[in-house]
Amino acid sequence: MSLKPRIDAAVSRAIAHGQGRAQGPGGEAVPQKLASALHYATTPGGARIRPTILLSVALACGDDRPDVSDAAAAALELIHCASLVHDDLPCFDDAALRRGKPSVHRAYGEPLAVLTGDSLIILAFEVLARTGTVDAARAAQLVLTLAQRTGMPGGICAGQGWESEDKIDLAAYHRSKTGALFTAATQMGAIAAGQEAEPWFELGDRIGAAFQVADDLRDALCDVSELGKPVGQDDLHGRPNAVAELGVDGAMSRLKDILGGAIASIPSCPGEAALAQMVTLTAQKIIPQAAVAAARG
Amino acid sequence: MSLKPRIDAAVSRAIAHGQGRAQGPGGEAVPQKLASALHYATTPGGARIRPTILLSVALACGDDRPDVSDAAAAALELIHCASLVHDDLPCFDDAALRRGKPSVHRAYGEPLAVLTGDSLIILAFEVLARTGTVDAARAAQLVLTLAQRTGMPGGICAGQGWESEDKIDLAAYHRSKTGALFTAATQMGAIAAGQEAEPWFELGDRIGAAFQVADDLRDALCDVSELGKPVGQDDLHGRPNAVAELGVDGAMSRLKDILGGAIASIPSCPGEAALAQMVTLTAQKIIPQAAVAAARG
């Protein structure tokens, strides 16, 4: 069963709050362009891979408080969307396209793009905090985990920050830039279902590493119509890339090794088998077809 | 007794976490420029007016969990500093100076300025969430209140967002752009000390309104050496201003009315008298001397 409708509904409820629509009519006036940009930046949903992993882990752990899991999934996706909006800004990638449509700063201008990213980050924490009335301990732990994987010194902000350093620590760079939101996904899924976060680190870490290699393959091989954003960005910006280091075959082989390890790392839980299947399905989604063809050829 | 040393220590501990120094040596590598920018953006401290109000309310309510109050004060100041960093960006005010030194994007470049603002926002929520081990319910409530006053639809992001609208709702604009962090201050102070937030709204709201008028006076009358940032920005950007509307005398008179109402609104609590004194002291700090002289002359 696809989790996407559940995730899209949770994201949509969160955005309604951010737009002041959830509070009902008659409230304070809201700046409409920024309100509209919040929706624009979070739709269409794409694969929603991170919240899918989060909910899959929560379900594997029993999902005893679905409202808390929904909030966690929405919060994680909001952070991911915020990072895309800010990474696309002229001072970073200066991307014209995202998910096949103009990037937020192209559609709404740079001031509203900065504010859209800021607002989505804040909304993510608000969504989590609102579950405090259901279970304050889980809410606080979810906020802490998401913050640690998003900010400094080890979250996606740190990852982006590495690109301004003269000398990049590659392991720290990949772990924070790409890996952090995958460890957030597995750990927040466990927390949302009342389980310890720590045993779920390795699964997220390995999925993140696989995703990084898959992203490198996509960046090196796919054309703009498949990707919906400019390709060859790594080469253009001189960023490190697994394909440059290992070639296409080597990168594909590394990716398969990592995914095998990911499945082996799944902690013992009621939904272990279904979760292993989800990891395999996610892998099929993230490996670009051009890379499969190139590795065969 | 000045609360500034207590606030500065709390902010400094928060920044140490964000820089990866609080976790001790031997941890993961950290991008050093971004780590340095976090410190740069939060020092020198300035008047720390918002966290002073927060701690004053917490003390008036008994301050039974000083660690939680400290975290709340630090979080609020981090959000304020983050907003200054992003507001100074070229796409907004393009400010060269802040607190008498180059703005973050002038000192570190635009990419790191965007990331510094993002990281400070996230760190604020992390600092609050970490108090969850002491009192999860207060932690979750603090995150919720701070998020509501920072993001969309009614926080400082909304305030900044109004400046991109063709038609500005002035009441909503001022309340969100300037007032929101003052209501956050009084309400978070109450929550940190285990009290209801709602009765503390009016005090924060009135201090915020007073601050807005004082800021308009400063912007209209002071020179760059007193302010440490470019003056006449409102006039330059065509933003609404109480001095333009009422003149200097009229604005001074409105400011005094608002402050009188603020003191009258203080809820009954053990430290009521001391809190009234703090509001008076804060007023003396925020009213620019040039406006006092102009109103006399």
Chain oligomer state: homodimer
CATH architecture of chain A: Orthogonal Bundle
Average of the residue pLDDT scores of chain A: 91
Total count of domains of chain A: 1
Say which CATH homologous superfamily of chain A is assigned.
Answer: Farnesyl Diphosphate Synthase
How much beta of chain A, percentage-wise? Answer: under 5%
3D structure, described in words:
The first copy, chain A, has 297 residues and is mainly α. Chain A has one domain (4-21, 30-296): Farnesyl Diphosphate Synthase (Orthogonal Bundle). The first copy, chain A, is 70% helix and 1% strand. The first copy, chain A, has 15 helices and two strands. In chain A, α6 (110-130) runs antiparallel to α7 (136-150). The mean pLDDT of chain A is 91. Chains A, B: Pathway: Isoprenoid biosynthesis; geranylgeranyl diphosphate biosynthesis; geranylgeranyl diphosphate from farnesyl diphosphate and isopentenyl diphosphate: step 1/1. Chains A, B: Catalyzes the condensation of farnesyl diphosphate (FPP) and isopentenyl diphosphate (IPP) to yield geranylgeranyl diphosphate (GGPP) needed for biosynthesis of carotenoids and diterpenes. Chains A, B: Keywords: Carotenoid biosynthesis, Chlorophyll biosynthesis, Isoprene biosynthesis, Magnesium, Metal-binding, Photosynthesis, Transferase.
Topology of helices and strands:
The structure is a homodimer of 297-residue chains.
Chain A: H1 4-18, H2 32-42, H3 49-60, H4 66-87, E1 97-98, E2 101-102, H5 104-108, H6 110-130, H7 136-150, H8 156-162, H9 170-192, H10 201-221, H11 224-227, H12 233-237, H13 242-264, H14 272-286, H15 289-296
Antiparallel strand pairs in A: 1-2
Function (chains A, B): Catalyzes the condensation of farnesyl diphosphate (FPP) and isopentenyl diphosphate (IPP) to yield geranylgeranyl diphosphate (GGPP) needed for biosynthesis of carotenoids and diterpenes.
Keywords (chains A, B): Carotenoid biosynthesis, Chlorophyll biosynthesis, Isoprene biosynthesis, Magnesium, Metal-binding, Photosynthesis, Transferase
Cofactor (chains A, B): Mg(2+)
